[in-house]
Amino acid sequence: MNKQVIIRSACLALFVGLAGGCATGPGGGSIYVPVGGDDRRSAPEPPRTNIPDEQDEQVWRKSEQPTVTEPDSPSTRAPSYSESGDQLPAAALTLVRDADQRLRQGDSAGAIARLERAQRIAPRSSEVYFKLAEAYVAGDNLGAAEQFTLKGLSLAGNDERMQRSGWLLLADIRRARGNVAGADQAEARAAAL
Amino acid sequence: MSKKTPPRKKKTESSPRRKRSGLWRFLFRAAALCLVLLAGWMVYLDAVVTSRFEGRRFEVPSRVYARPLELYDGAGISAAALVRELELAGYRSGDGRRPGTWQRNGDRFVISTRGFSFPDGKEPRRRLSLVVRGDRVDSFSVMEGDSSPIVRLEPAQIGGIYPSHREDRILVELDEVPESMIAGLMAVEDRQFYEHFGIAPLSIARAMVANIKAGRIVQGGSTLTQQLVKNFFLTREQTLLRKGNEALMSVLLELHYDKDDILETYLNEVYLGQAGTRSIHGVGLASQFFFGESLKDIDVHQIALLIGMVKGPSYYNPRRHPERARARRNLVLDEMAEAGVISGQEAREASARPLGLSAKPSYTDNRYPAYIDLVRRHLARDYREEDLQSEGLRIFTTLNPEVQQAAEKAATDTLPRLASGEVAEALEAAVVVTAKDTGEVLALVGGKDPRFAGFNRAVDARRPIGSLVKPFIYLTALSQPERYTLISPVQDKAFTLEFDDGRRWQPQNYDGKERGLVPLHEALSRSYNLPAVRVGLDVGIPAVQETLRAFGVTTPISDYPSMLLGSISLSPVDVAQLYQGLATSGFNTPLRTIREVTDAANEPLSRYSLKVDQVADPAAVHLVQYVMQETMQEGTGRSAYYRLPDSLTLAGKTGTTDDGRDSWFAGFSGDLLAVAWVGRDDNGPTALTGASGALPVWSATMAQIPQHGFSPVMPDGVQYHWVNPGEQALTGENCDNARLIPFIAGSEPEQHTGCNGSLGRQIRGWFEGLFQ
């Protein structure tokens, strides 16, 4: 296997990813709820279910206020999902950069320790998992690297740049592990984006 | 030597002269014998002294730390929780300038950290400024010290692993001890330390004269060496023989070892206090214990207090007898000034200062017995008990004190409200909380009395899981999208299974009703039994077993169909492991209580890294997650929202076994996964269900913690469609019975159904589209 190539391509792929995801506040897509609830609902409204409601026979008129729903009525709550994972908050980004530096110095264990701190801060951000995969490639643990790449991909959502980075990284890792078919498949996924 | 005895003369020759020489001879022989015995005794004592001194001198217990609090912009914590964290780590409310103090002004905190050597590097001292608003850290900045957007506080010590004698100490080397402490100690306890040979006859004489004059013991003539010998090798009894031994051993010790070596050992051995059954030895630990500071950071008034306490650690205990301790401290300061260790001015200033104690002992033993129990079991995989007790290891755990407190409070407050009388007495509970994506165990409650170090139900109570098994049945089914989708109609209708041996099994719904055909998502979110068994039998028990094993069940799983209703016995920790994979979209994440272990010198010994392992198709898991959210909103878990804000999206599942013997709830938010169990140790019946027993404990836990809602990222190959589940057809967003449901691509229905929605709603729908 050619570790250099893997790392280089991973770095390149991740650079693309990280460049897009560095300027952000904390939290990203998920709704943060302080104890007792949050009255500043800034996050996009989750998809709603429409269950017919006998009382809901009102005629819509332009002058009317938006319907105020009962807080306990189930129709205000609906299963939630996100189109993409969270972006990296600044604190996590600092740790990722520190990890990068350690990787350059050949200290993959030190890099992993920092990335795990970053992962605790931003557990729904695919970049962190791709970076962990990169650190495990450097530490010659390709099995773990593949798993972290898959985990990162599961959080990439509709972010095509992130998806492409992930599939290419996965292809490199699979090829290095001798899984040519798997690598080709991953590459095809990247190309299809 | 007896050979030299001169040949005997005749008996008759006896005379006074002869008698005298016989006496001399006897005396000579007796003396010689004594000398031999003494020499032998000395050899023995020497062996005792050297073997004990040479070998491992101290057994140092291992220290167990909570996870360090990370502070950065956006960190989720309430102001009250931050204060509790600071107190637990031994911080004092103060000026925010002295290391180890904080100052609060409304929302704004100024914190001066002490710094800490973590296994992955040193966190230097810093002065931090931050605001806590909406349970989040904001405007975080470093006012003094290395700038960084993220800073770790020192971790709170939450326990120790002690040798049987329960001596606790932090070893210090002589060059880490402040010079004024060494000089002060000598000024007070042993002025001739560097000159004498172990004992100081002059000092003893002086002390004797003083004691005779006073008519009581006012002065001791013991050197530091003698004090060390007394503590190190001998019992506390006051006999002449012991005094003799002490003197002899002191001399021997001085013969073998140099002064610095003896002094260093003394500083680590000296007994300075008691915390329950744990005894506080050495100046290193005493400094931590009384001031919450490491030895190198304490001031001269604190140094003087420690020196003063050598004379009588309980008599001068500064927490119990502050005035007495203060007087003693000031006396020591005077003596230090007199000996020239400090100036008179310094002594006066130091005498005017308060004692400078930390708010309370930096931790009390046994605060988290259930959690420490699990830590010890994990440690036992890699470490021998005797090493844990003696090598001074540092164990960095994942315990989150805030979450732990929330879970404890939830269990102790909720349980008495769940029943009355004898049943209430007998009710027990267990709670496990983990970080959803890391698998770190944040909190563990082993019973309704969280301080009681007894039966750890979170780990050892293996009980049938009831309906907690259902998500795994449906996951197995939904992994075959060509056969099952969330709107597949399933039969809610009674049936009887007849086994080969003639026995019959007739499962029933909890409410005894039958509903005919229901959509799959509804069958799961309402936890109907009959469809679950039918679907389970359809996909096959082996397939369900395989799913459970993939998600982490290691114990044997029954082959009987009753397993489809949860006749699988698991502990709450096992259930947390099982649900981890559901919460993280099909990635198993082994539960961990330990991040790292280092030796006493901060050399890493083990690291327990994050591991992930994909065990299921994220798309199929996403569908199950959808239904587990529906469970919370419309199904068996909806009563959680009596306590929790609507904006906190959650996913979960109730579990109940026959006659309410076990009440379970397992569920997760964006950040946390929690499992609660309520039941009786004697496995007796209760009137509880998963929703009325475990769920209140679960939601009371969650309600105390600020966190992200659950909003899983839509995986590849999943599409959401508006459908009419009853008619199994696509429909419009604003039509009656329309529900936005995820499908594995290609498994969505093909036919459309007409829209019977009211006109008003359709018009509104068009306008929403127009103005978006």
From TrEMBL, chain A:
Know the name of this protein? Answer: Tetratricopeptide repeat protein
Alphabetized, the UniProt keywords read: Signal
Q: Give the signal sequence positions.
A: 1-19
- Species: Marinobacter nauticus
Comp. bias regions, Polar residues: 65-85
Q: Where is this region: Disordered?
A: 34-85
What's the domain of life for this entry?
Bacteria
From TrEMBL, chain B:
Q: Indicate yes or no for the key word Cell membrane.
A: yes
Read off the lineage from the record: Bacteria, Pseudomonadati, Pseudomonadota, Gammaproteobacteria, Pseudomonadales
- Where does the Penicillin-binding protein transpeptidase domain lie? 430-668
Q: Could you tell me one molecular function GO term of this UniProt entry?
A: penicillin binding
Q: Which family does it belong to?
A: In the C-terminal section; belongs to the transpeptidase family. In the N-terminal section; belongs to the glycosyltransferase 51 family.
Which pathway features in its UniProt record? Cell wall biogenesis; peptidoglycan biosynthesis
Q: What is the name attached to this protein's record? A: Penicillin-binding protein 1B
Catalyzed reactions per annotation: Preferential cleavage: (Ac)2-L-Lys-D-Ala-|-D-Ala. Also transpeptidation of peptidyl-alanyl moieties that are N-acyl substituents of D-alanine; [GlcNAc-(1->4)-Mur2Ac(oyl-L-Ala-gamma-D-Glu-L-Lys-D-Ala-D-Ala)](n)-di-trans,octa-cis-undecaprenyl diphosphate + beta-D-GlcNAc-(1->4)-Mur2Ac(oyl-L-Ala-gamma-D-Glu-L-Lys-D-Ala-D-Ala)-di-trans,octa-cis-undecaprenyl diphosphate = [GlcNAc-(1->4)-Mur2Ac(oyl-L-Ala-gamma-D-Glu-L-Lys-D-Ala-D-Ala)](n+1)-di-trans,octa-cis-undecaprenyl diphosphate + di-trans,octa-cis-undecaprenyl diphosphate + H(+)
